[in-house]
Model the fold of this input.
Amino acid sequence: MARYVTRRLAQALVTLWVIITVTFLLMHALPGDPFTDPKLPEQIRQNMRIKYGLDKPLYEQYGIYFNNLAHGNLGYSLKYQQRTVNDMIRDGFPYSADLGVRAILFGVLMGVSLGTLAAFYHDGWFDRTAMVIAVIGVSVPNFIIATLLDYLLAAKLQILPAAGWGSFQQSLMPSFSLGLLVVATMARLMRASVLDVVGQDYIRTAKAKGLNSREVIWRHIIRNAILPVITVLGPLIVNIVTGSFVIEQVFGIPGLGKYFIQAVYNNDYTLIMGTTIFYSALLIVAILLVDVLYGFVDPRIRLAGGRD
Amino acid sequence: MAAPEINRELFQPVQFDREQAETISRPALTYWQDAWIRLKRNKTAMAGMLVLVVIIIAAMVFPARASFLPEWWPGNLYVYSDQNLQEISRPPGGLHWIGTDDLGRDLWVRLWTGARLSLTIGISAALVDLLIGIVYGGISGYLGGAVDDVMMRIIEVLFGIPYLIMVILLSLIFRPTSANLFSAVMPLLLALTILGWIGVARLVRGQVLQLKNQEFVLAAQVLGADTWRIVAKHLLPNVIGPIIVWVTLDIPSVIFSEAFLSFVGLGVPMPFASWGTLAANGYQFMRIWPWFIIFPSIAIALTMLSFNLFGDGLRDALDPRMRK
Done:
């Protein structure tokens, strides 16, 4: 187990380093610099370049950036004066995290129950309906669902607020459209997993022992079936994060995703770099946690130590 | 009427012949015929395939100019970039089958021109991914040992990079320009494929690793087949099923990524149309002119749904063991 965790940790660190370096190089490979406005006098441009350290050779800038990064300092935004990237992350991220957690919770709870019920009523009408919902949830892009919901429920029927963040009603549509993919993926996997577990010998044994069906379902079926389903949580979290870029835009939520897209429009290089690195670190840690958690929960990995 | 008398003479012993018992009375089905029969039985997969065929044909014919067709044919009346300021934001009806947009461009023609772009990007990105993935995964799996180790470590590191975030960054570097269609699409294609091949490389490597130690490969080696023949005749046909399935499921995800990029304003530039840019434009005017958003949304959703249904069906048909 320790070997497995160390290996995954080393891998995560290398990935993060690659991302930081690639982001740094990409941002510096862009033609020109953020101060190419022709109205800017040459002298001021020079001073700006010096102020932001853009006049130094690339390797030196890289060293400075890395050093700052190690101290948790992501630098100043180039577009918003006097605002640091850290500030903006601190402002925006709580909203994004709130939205993301709601979407994940909704998705996992809904998906796992849908999938389990679908498996119990295998080939019945409930199973078919659930799987139709699942296929639609996997296929229809989140921003389409978001815009259509926004149009139907907010603009036409006016039963939910169209935008903003704060009240419970305002969180319904964003969490739903962001979480639908999680619902769909979870439901499909959970259904297959439960169907697999139900046919196992130990379920027959449990029934033969005389356990009542509630015991069998909770202790033996769901507990075993949910294990392999946990692993997809990592990729799903990635999806939630990238999905939040558009969902926050559609519903006017002042989260980090909105800042990120704005930064891309504005060529705000430090903000782009900062948010990319922040997001990547977040995702890498999240996936690492899911993998390690899975390792702890699954005795086959816990005891055998790592899988290849 | 009396029943015919049944007697011993009417019967004849069946000739049992050892030679005959071994003959195969039905024609032997190839892998593909067999898969096709299984696919045909899967109604949802067939429906997906049908919808895809309809969409592809529609994308080919509707924006096309056709002098032999009557005047009202959309391709004869409008071009996707033709602005008509007299006919801004017309609702569906009349000669504009699904209305016009905020610059007076015919939405039906734009929708199907967009389909050409979205589908082309989806299919070509999937094929490029496939090509890189097969070469990388094939080399890694076939050579094995230290080479495989190094190549897999690289993949593991790349796999941790969040795909869409990197695509957004890359689309900043390879900025699409509106000079011509090529310069509008190529940068996107590059951004979408730089990390897109990892999945298929892992798939191919796993398959090759599993296959290369099997007896039929050994037999081919003993018979004197060279590496090229083994790869082409023995390994490739065996991995082709999962690869085809992967491609059909990769196309919708590329179409999604492109639409996502266009939706946040980083996709194909004006005046070119893709489903993503149409949806983005529709979203802006959703409250006043809802028909802008409805049709591109339906098109994207329906296409992705059909690809997924078809891909799922194909997986069941090509790999019967995977079936539940």
Remarks:
- The CA atoms of residues 2 and 144 of chain B lie 81 Å apart.
